[in-house]
UniProtKB/TrEMBL annotation:
Membrane-crossing segments per the record: 31-56, 76-98, 119-145, 151-168
Protein name: Uncharacterized protein
Keywords carried by this UniProt record: Membrane, Transmembrane, Transmembrane helix
Length: 188
Protein backbone atom coordinates (compact mmCIF):
# COMPACT_ATOMS: atom_id res chain seq x y z
CA UNK A 1 0.00 0.00 0.00
CA UNK A 2 1.42 3.37 -0.93
CA UNK A 3 1.51 6.32 1.41
CA UNK A 4 -0.97 8.16 -0.81
CA UNK A 5 -3.53 5.38 -0.25
CA UNK A 6 -3.72 6.29 3.43
CA UNK A 7 -3.70 10.07 3.05
CA UNK A 8 -6.68 12.09 4.15
CA UNK A 9 -8.70 13.26 1.17
CA UNK A 10 -9.05 16.99 0.67
CA UNK A 11 -12.15 18.27 2.39
CA UNK A 12 -14.58 21.08 1.81
CA UNK A 13 -13.13 24.29 3.23
CA UNK A 14 -14.87 25.73 6.26
CA UNK A 15 -17.44 23.00 6.91
CA UNK A 16 -18.10 21.56 10.36
CA UNK A 17 -16.41 18.27 9.46
CA UNK A 18 -13.37 20.15 8.16
CA UNK A 19 -13.18 22.24 11.35
CA UNK A 20 -13.50 19.10 13.50
CA UNK A 21 -10.65 17.43 11.62
CA UNK A 22 -8.33 20.43 11.60
CA UNK A 23 -8.58 23.10 14.27
CA UNK A 24 -10.77 21.06 16.67
CA UNK A 25 -9.35 17.58 15.99
CA UNK A 26 -7.42 17.41 19.27
CA UNK A 27 -10.52 18.43 21.25
CA UNK A 28 -12.72 15.99 19.31
CA UNK A 29 -10.31 13.13 19.93
CA UNK A 30 -10.13 13.93 23.64
CA UNK A 31 -13.92 14.02 23.99
CA UNK A 32 -14.16 10.75 22.06
CA UNK A 33 -11.48 9.18 24.29
CA UNK A 34 -13.43 10.19 27.42
CA UNK A 35 -16.52 8.46 26.01
CA UNK A 36 -14.50 5.31 25.26
CA UNK A 37 -12.87 5.30 28.71
CA UNK A 38 -16.22 5.82 30.47
CA UNK A 39 -17.62 2.84 28.60
CA UNK A 40 -14.53 0.80 29.52
CA UNK A 41 -15.06 1.74 33.17
CA UNK A 42 -18.60 0.37 33.00
CA UNK A 43 -17.40 -2.97 31.61
CA UNK A 44 -14.48 -3.23 34.05
CA UNK A 45 -16.71 -2.48 37.05
CA UNK A 46 -19.18 -5.10 35.83
CA UNK A 47 -16.36 -7.66 35.51
CA UNK A 48 -15.11 -6.73 38.99
CA UNK A 49 -18.63 -7.17 40.38
CA UNK A 50 -18.76 -10.67 38.88
CA UNK A 51 -15.23 -12.00 39.34
CA UNK A 52 -14.00 -10.21 42.46
CA UNK A 53 -17.17 -9.47 44.42
CA UNK A 54 -18.91 -12.68 43.31
CA UNK A 55 -22.16 -11.03 42.24
CA UNK A 56 -24.46 -13.03 39.97
CA UNK A 57 -24.34 -11.78 36.35
CA UNK A 58 -27.88 -10.28 36.42
CA UNK A 59 -26.93 -8.20 39.49
CA UNK A 60 -23.58 -7.04 38.05
CA UNK A 61 -24.70 -3.92 36.23
CA UNK A 62 -21.62 -1.70 36.23
CA UNK A 63 -21.71 1.82 37.66
CA UNK A 64 -24.73 3.37 35.93
CA UNK A 65 -26.68 0.11 35.97
CA UNK A 66 -26.92 0.14 39.76
CA UNK A 67 -29.14 3.25 40.00
CA UNK A 68 -30.61 2.68 36.51
CA UNK A 69 -30.98 -1.12 36.08
CA UNK A 70 -32.94 -0.77 32.83
CA UNK A 71 -29.75 0.55 31.15
CA UNK A 72 -28.08 -2.84 31.26
CA UNK A 73 -31.08 -4.65 29.81
CA UNK A 74 -31.87 -2.02 27.17
CA UNK A 75 -30.64 -3.08 23.74
CA UNK A 76 -31.42 0.48 22.62
CA UNK A 77 -28.80 1.86 25.01
CA UNK A 78 -26.16 -0.66 23.89
CA UNK A 79 -26.97 -0.08 20.23
CA UNK A 80 -26.89 3.69 20.76
CA UNK A 81 -23.40 3.49 22.21
CA UNK A 82 -22.20 1.26 19.33
CA UNK A 83 -23.66 3.79 16.88
CA UNK A 84 -22.02 6.74 18.65
CA UNK A 85 -18.70 4.90 18.47
CA UNK A 86 -19.14 4.12 14.78
CA UNK A 87 -20.06 7.73 13.97
CA UNK A 88 -17.11 8.98 16.04
CA UNK A 89 -14.66 6.78 14.13
CA UNK A 90 -16.09 7.93 10.80
CA UNK A 91 -16.31 11.63 11.65
CA UNK A 92 -12.79 11.85 13.15
CA UNK A 93 -11.17 9.75 10.40
CA UNK A 94 -10.33 12.57 7.95
CA UNK A 95 -7.91 14.08 10.48
CA UNK A 96 -5.67 11.01 10.37
CA UNK A 97 -2.88 10.43 7.85
CA UNK A 98 -0.21 7.83 7.16
CA UNK A 99 0.22 4.95 9.62
CA UNK A 100 -2.15 6.52 12.14
CA UNK A 101 -4.86 6.49 9.45
CA UNK A 102 -4.19 2.80 8.80
CA UNK A 103 -4.63 1.97 12.50
CA UNK A 104 -7.74 4.17 12.70
CA UNK A 105 -9.15 2.27 9.70
CA UNK A 106 -8.50 -1.05 11.48
CA UNK A 107 -10.43 0.25 14.48
CA UNK A 108 -13.24 1.48 12.25
CA UNK A 109 -13.49 -1.95 10.60
CA UNK A 110 -13.73 -3.69 13.98
CA UNK A 111 -16.37 -1.19 15.12
CA UNK A 112 -18.41 -1.82 11.97
CA UNK A 113 -18.63 -5.49 13.03
CA UNK A 114 -19.33 -4.56 16.68
CA UNK A 115 -22.09 -2.22 15.49
CA UNK A 116 -23.55 -5.00 13.31
CA UNK A 117 -23.65 -7.33 16.33
CA UNK A 118 -25.53 -4.69 18.37
CA UNK A 119 -27.92 -4.04 15.49
CA UNK A 120 -28.60 -7.78 15.40
CA UNK A 121 -29.27 -7.76 19.17
CA UNK A 122 -31.59 -4.75 18.87
CA UNK A 123 -33.56 -6.31 16.01
CA UNK A 124 -34.00 -9.49 18.04
CA UNK A 125 -35.21 -7.49 21.06
CA UNK A 126 -37.69 -5.60 18.88
CA UNK A 127 -39.04 -8.66 17.05
CA UNK A 128 -38.81 -11.33 19.73
CA UNK A 129 -37.20 -13.67 17.19
CA UNK A 130 -33.94 -14.78 18.80
CA UNK A 131 -30.88 -16.19 17.07
CA UNK A 132 -30.43 -19.97 17.21
CA UNK A 133 -33.62 -20.42 19.24
CA UNK A 134 -32.15 -18.77 22.33
CA UNK A 135 -34.42 -17.27 25.01
CA UNK A 136 -32.76 -13.83 24.81
CA UNK A 137 -31.20 -11.63 22.11
CA UNK A 138 -27.90 -13.23 21.13
CA UNK A 139 -25.08 -11.96 18.91
CA UNK A 140 -23.26 -14.26 16.48
CA UNK A 141 -20.05 -14.46 18.51
CA UNK A 142 -22.12 -14.81 21.69
CA UNK A 143 -23.00 -18.27 20.43
CA UNK A 144 -19.39 -19.14 21.35
CA UNK A 145 -18.52 -16.75 24.21
CA UNK A 146 -20.46 -15.35 27.17
CA UNK A 147 -21.72 -11.77 26.72
CA UNK A 148 -19.77 -10.14 29.57
CA UNK A 149 -16.45 -11.57 28.42
CA UNK A 150 -17.29 -10.96 24.76
CA UNK A 151 -17.89 -7.26 25.36
CA UNK A 152 -14.65 -6.94 27.31
CA UNK A 153 -12.93 -8.55 24.33
CA UNK A 154 -14.71 -6.33 21.78
CA UNK A 155 -13.84 -3.20 23.72
CA UNK A 156 -10.19 -4.24 23.89
CA UNK A 157 -10.22 -5.10 20.19
CA UNK A 158 -11.56 -1.63 19.37
CA UNK A 159 -9.55 0.35 21.92
CA UNK A 160 -6.04 -1.04 21.30
CA UNK A 161 -5.72 -0.04 17.62
CA UNK A 162 -7.53 3.22 18.42
CA UNK A 163 -4.88 4.11 21.01
CA UNK A 164 -2.10 3.08 18.60
CA UNK A 165 -3.63 5.37 15.96
CA UNK A 166 -3.90 8.25 18.42
CA UNK A 167 -0.32 7.85 19.66
CA UNK A 168 1.05 7.68 16.11
CA UNK A 169 -1.11 10.66 15.21
CA UNK A 170 0.40 12.78 17.99
CA UNK A 171 3.92 11.91 16.85
CA UNK A 172 3.60 13.27 13.32
CA UNK A 173 4.05 16.88 12.24
CA UNK A 174 3.66 18.89 9.06
CA UNK A 175 7.42 18.61 8.58
CA UNK A 176 7.15 14.79 8.65
CA UNK A 177 3.93 14.63 6.62
CA UNK A 178 2.74 17.70 4.69
CA UNK A 179 -0.82 16.28 4.49
CA UNK A 180 -1.31 16.72 8.28
CA UNK A 181 -4.10 19.25 8.73
CA UNK A 182 -4.59 19.35 12.51
CA UNK A 183 -2.62 20.43 15.56
CA UNK A 184 -2.68 17.12 17.43
CA UNK A 185 1.10 16.60 17.29
CA UNK A 186 2.78 16.83 20.67
CA UNK A 187 4.69 20.03 21.15
CA UNK A 188 8.34 19.52 22.13
Amino acid sequence: MTASATQAPPSRQGGALDTLNTRLHKVGLRVFLVIVLAHWAEHLVQAMQIYILGWPVPEARGVLGIPFPWLVTSEWMHYGYALVMLVGFIVLRPGFTGKSRTWWNVTLGIQVWHHFEHLLLLLQALTGAYLAGNAVPTSIIQLFAPRVELHLFYNALVTIPMVVAMVLHTRISKEDDPSVRCTCALQA
